[in-house]
């Protein structure tokens, strides 16, 4: 599972003692731990997308469900990261195309990607993702299933179906016409009404939202949209990470080494001379050699002995800034929606000629 708001351009949560630098490295660690990561380690370190064949070997015959959410937010950060004449965003697009092709040929693998609409704050990035993936559609033998979230226009029909017996369409037209005639008469007598509550368009709007008032539908849509409901993929975490009695999880839980073991392993490596190989020391401590290698590299970066990777403090700061940016974007989206709503509600009224 990958959620775009939980990672920086090249900083991801550590798994099995390894901190991946790309989406493909991070997913590989989740699918098969350090052993699976070895298949894409070179591509992960170079920030270059692996090919479809490498991904096929990575997934193999195991049942695999891949969940990718809020990829557009990640694209925003990846666009500014240069990679040998390209960008990390373009490499991520190449990875997604290869991933589509790999999953298409594996009957026991499935891929779920969610994108935002064009009106979202990250709509431009979502469009780039969708356009790039469109190029692979003609090559796929299996067809995707596209689920469209409900919109404001669907809300009255959904509510009516849940709350009432089937409604008579003729009744909706009669009620709408009489209600519109009443408001027109009141407006003609000098009653101030919000803009749009007169004329033929008002009758059509009442019929569309029947048996609910159009104003109620607008309020419900605006208010509900500001509630932070976890997206589909976040809701599926429990399904993926937990399983019922007698069932095995689809994705193996990554191995987590204790902090004490990590500190001891790094100390033993630094205090030994000549330096032991990572494989030999890993066998002695029952630690995967790649995890041990990553711990030592990170310790050297924290000590200022190497500059090819960020320090732990810098990684934490990047994660903190990423969380703050995500929260600020969410607040801006809420404020933008609220401003548009209240502007429409308290704006100047005008008469229809």
Q: Main sheet: which strands, in order across?
A: 1-2-5
How many beta-strand elements? 5
H/E element sequence = EHHHEHEEHEHHHHHHHHHHH
Shape: elongated
Which stretches are poorly predicted, pLDDT < 50 over at least 5 residues?
Answer: 117-123, 226-254, 349-353
The biggest sheet amounts to:
3 strands, parallel
Distance between the termini: 57 Å
Work out the helicity level.
Answer: 55-70%
**What's the gyration radius in Å?**
27 Å
- List the domain count as a whole number: 3
Helices, by number, come to: 16
The portion of residues forming beta strands comes to: under 5%
Secondary-structure-based class equals mainly alpha
The overall average pLDDT, rounded, is: 76
Structure report:
This protein has 353 residues and is mainly α. It has 16 helices and 5 strands. Strands 1-2-5 form a 3-stranded parallel β-sheet. Strands 3-4 form a two-stranded antiparallel ribbon. A hairpin with a 2-residue loop joins strand 3 and strand 4 (86-87). Helix 4 runs antiparallel to helix 5 and helix 8 runs antiparallel to helix 9 (200-209). The protein is elongated and about 95 Å long. Residues 117-123, 226-254 and 349-353 have low confidence and may be disordered.
Gist?
Helices cover 57% and strands 5% of the residues.
Name its key features.
353 residues, mainly alpha, 57% helix, elongated
Per-chain topology:
Layout: E1 2-3, H1 23-38, H2 41-46, H3 52-59, E2 64-69, H4 71-78, E3 82-83, E4 86-87, H5 88-104, E5 109-113, H6 123-137, H7 155-163, H8 169-188, H9 200-209, H10 214-225, H11 232-235, H12 237-241, H13 259-271, H14 278-285, H15 289-302, H16 312-346
Parallel strand pairs: 1-2, 2-5
Antiparallel strand pairs: 3-4
């Amino acid at each position: 599972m990958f959620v775009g708001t939980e990672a920086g351009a090249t900083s991801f949560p550590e798994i099995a003692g390894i901190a991946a630098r790309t989406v493909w490295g991070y997913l590989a660690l989740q699918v098969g731990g350090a052993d699976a990561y070895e298949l894409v380690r070179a591509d992960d370190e170079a920030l270059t997308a692996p090919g479809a064949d490498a991904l096929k070997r990575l997934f193999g015959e195991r049942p695999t469900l891949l969940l990718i959410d809020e990829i557009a937010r990640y694209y925003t950060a990846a666009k500014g990261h240069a990679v040998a004449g390209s960008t990390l965003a373009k490499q991520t697009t190449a990875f997604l195309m290869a991933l589509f092709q790999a999953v298409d040929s594996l009957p026991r693998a499935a891929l779920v990607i969610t994108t935002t609409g064009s009106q979202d704050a990250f709509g431009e990035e979502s469009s780039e993702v969708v356009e790039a993936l469109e190029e692979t559609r003609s090559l796929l033998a299996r067809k995707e299933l596209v689920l469209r979230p409900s919109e404001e226009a669907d809300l009255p029909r959904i509510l009516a179906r849940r709350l009432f017996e089937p409604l008579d369409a003729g009744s909706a037209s009669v009620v709408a016409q009489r209600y519109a005639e009443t408001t027109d008469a009141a407006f003609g007598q000098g009653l101030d009404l919000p803009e749009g509550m007169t004329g033929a368009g008002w009758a059509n709007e009442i019929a569309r939202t029947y048996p609910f008032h159009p104003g109620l539908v607008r309020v419900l849509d605006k208010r509900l949209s500001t509630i932070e409901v976890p997206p589909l993929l976040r809701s599926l975490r429990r399904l993926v990470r937990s399983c019922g009695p007698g069932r095995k999880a689809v994705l193996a839980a990554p191995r987590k080494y204790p902090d004490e073991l990590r500190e001891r392993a790094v100390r033993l490596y630094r205090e030994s001379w000549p330096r032991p190989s990572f494989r030999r020391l890993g066998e002695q401590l029952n630690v995967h050699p790649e995890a041990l290698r990553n711990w030592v590299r990170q310790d050297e970066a924290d000590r200022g002995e190497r500059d090819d990777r960020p320090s732990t403090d810098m990684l934490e700061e990047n994660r903190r800034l990423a969380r703050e940016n995500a929260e600020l974007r969410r607040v801006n989206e809420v404020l933008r929606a609220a401003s548009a709503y209240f502007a429409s509600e308290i704006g100047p009224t005008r008469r229809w000629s």
